[in-house]
């Protein structure tokens, strides 16, 4: 490809994706509200921009074939704090991509679009939305918008419902929900390189023995996850404190399923894990 745009490029997952995406195009335009890092890749350009401002996002799409949209506030917040970056920002990306004739949006959706489904429900990509937070609701909004832009304007979209993406699984929940950085890279790369996709939803999980989903829905992309959280099972299960009355342990969304609307879900994940986690 001639050009790919990556939003959220300064985030934990955006940082992981910059190098592999740079190999998929002649030019990678990385953008974030954060300032440019100290070093860039040889074919990478950095643009500091606010997702909530259409006039800052629209020019980035000129000449691009795809946008990999990972920019967002990655936590539950009061609705007004998410409205700009997560809701309006998603619209701005899709509308700008449509105006400039891009082929596809690859979107970082989340398990939290279906976070109130039970762990034992054998959820697959056909399950209806059950968001656990305003954050999850933003993912539902963007997925539905992606389908609409495909059906009304022919702009393809692959919405990747990412679970617990960290270098290693951090807690007992992650024995099912972990997505390794290697598998994340493979999933996004396949979503970019597959010739045609139409509109699609796929779950971002590794090859975990305890995966709570029936089918990750990404086979048509050629995604074959390689890593398995079971390698950490003995250590993580020894730390577990089972409680069947705790929604955080019984629902796909984990701690996001148990917090009050507008309150941080990441705080619960950090307390459970002892570290950071992206979902």
UniProtKB/TrEMBL annotation:
<dbReference type="GO" id="GO:0016491">
    <property type="term" value="F:oxidoreductase activity"/>
</dbReference>
<protein>
    <submittedName>
        <fullName>NAD(P)-dependent oxidoreductase</fullName>
    </submittedName>
</protein>
<dbReference type="Pfam" id="PF01370">
    <property type="entry name" value="Epimerase"/>
</dbReference>
<keyword id="KW-0560">Oxidoreductase</keyword>
<dbReference type="InterPro" id="IPR036291">
    <property type="entry name" value="NAD(P)-bd_dom_sf"/>
</dbReference>
<dbReference type="InterPro" id="IPR001509">
    <property type="entry name" value="Epimerase_deHydtase"/>
</dbReference>
<keyword id="KW-0520">NAD</keyword>
<comment type="similarity">
    <text>Belongs to the NAD(P)-dependent epimerase/dehydratase family.</text>
</comment>
<feature type="domain" description="NAD-dependent epimerase/dehydratase">
    <location>
        <begin position="4"/>
        <end position="164"/>
    </location>
</feature>
């Amino acid at each position: 490809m001639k050009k790919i745009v990556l939003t959220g490029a300064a985030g934990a997952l955006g940082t992981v994706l910059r190098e592999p995406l740079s190999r998929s195009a002649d030019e990678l335009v990385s953008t974030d509200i954060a300032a440019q890092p100290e070093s860039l890749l040889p074919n990478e350009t950095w643009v500091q921009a606010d997702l909530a401002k259409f006039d800052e996002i629209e020019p980035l799409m000129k000449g691009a074939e795809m946008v990999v949209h990972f920019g967002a506030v990655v936590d539950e917040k009061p609705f007004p704090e998410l409205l700009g970056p997560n809701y309006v920002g998603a619209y701005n990306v899709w509308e700008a991509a449509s105006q400039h004739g891009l082929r596809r949006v690859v979107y970082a959706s989340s398990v939290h679009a279906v976070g109130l489904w039970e762990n034992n429900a054998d959820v697959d990509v056909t399950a209806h939305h059950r968001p656990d937070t305003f954050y999850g609701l933003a993912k539902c909004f963007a997925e539905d918008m992606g389908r609409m832009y495909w059906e009304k304007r022919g702009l393809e979209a692959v919405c990747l419902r990412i679970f617990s993406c960290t270098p290693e699984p951090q807690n007992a929940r992650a024995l099912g929900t972990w997505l390794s950085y290697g598998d994340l890279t493979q999933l996004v790369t396949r979503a970019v390189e597959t010739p045609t996709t139409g509109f699609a939803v796929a779950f971002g999980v590794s090859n975990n023995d305890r995966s709570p989903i029936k089918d990750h829905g990404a086979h048509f992309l050629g995604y074959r996850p390689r890593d398995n959280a079971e390698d950490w099972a003995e250590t993580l299960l020894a730390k577990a404190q089972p409680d069947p009355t705790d929604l955080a342990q019984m629902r796909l969304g984990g701690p996001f399923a148990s917090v009050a609307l507008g309150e941080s879900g990441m705080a619960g994940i950090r307390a459970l894990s002892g570290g950071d986690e992206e979902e």
